[in-house]
Design goal:
Length: 357
Amino acid sequence: MTTTETAAGVLPAMAEVPAAELRVAVLGVGMMGADHVARLYSRVSGARVVAVSDAAADRAAEVAAGVPGCRVLADPMTAIADPEVDAVVIATPGQFHHDQVLACIEQGKPVLCEKPLTMEAESSLAVVRAEDEYAARTGRRLVQIGFMRRFDPEYAELRGLIASGGLGEPLLVHCAHRNAAVPPHFTSQMMITDSVVHEVDVARFLLDEEITAVTVLRPRATRHAVAGQSDPLLVLFETEGGRMVDVECFVSTGVGYEVRTEVVAEDGVAVIGLDTGLVRQSRASAGAVRSGTITPSFKERFGRAYDIQVQRWVDAARRGGIDGPGVWDGYAAAAVGEAGVAALESGRRTEVRMAAR
Ligand code: ISE
């Protein structure tokens, strides 16, 4: 059997892409969902958005109006069950994911679910078990999780370099995750579950092993922090193989979007996310200056990654599978996130409790 190296690891090669277009329903058309609708409409081939659903009816109507032939279905469960819907993108708030993903599995429909898979490790594990049971019956996986960084060309190259042995054994990973600003409801817990969750997935993706313990430190907070928030945070992951990953999470820098990852290995160091772009040197009243532009938000920084992710998901769904992180990755992220929140609250090193696969 031939195999291919994918964002999920090594998978058996799948059959040719069938001719029929994938008819997609997008649930939740806030910032991320609306972005996926636009991407499916204008940049992704082999799929079309046939339905949208959102708790805000006017928002759903506005998004649907921009896509010929797209219906508004008020109830997301109706959209999942609709016979003219082949596959589903879930971009609703996290508390709805559990029921919606389970409904997709029940209907046998491929689904791309934005993170989190569900709100707790236990409910994520229930989804893992449900999809495992479906896969045992049909030989097909249905659920892909929207950890888009795996599709970013820089992250993919870094993983390839590590996997090739070109750097030697990785020992440490240093990560910076900085946002210019976050909304007022964004708590310190959300810095772990909404922001650092990406580094959880990146660490697992790059190092190919599980995270076993988390420590969270609260340095002096910026005066720009959302009220009551400890911003920045310093997070330390320990892995099964004794490696360590540190993450500076700083979500009110007021500057721009900076996501940097540096792998320190036995035979070298590799870094991505320098965001250098064009660097300009010019005269200024106080002397010559060197300047460039900092990417404003994750939509620009990871725009290409989102496009690649959705295209590969569509191609895989049309062949009857997934091509990217799956339910186990969603569960692992939830389990590490739970340990992270406990570590934040207790100030103590906290072990990750994960079930056996
Ligand atoms: C947001 O939800 C994301 O997923 C972004 O990638 C992340 O950088 C940001 O901190 C989160 O709030």
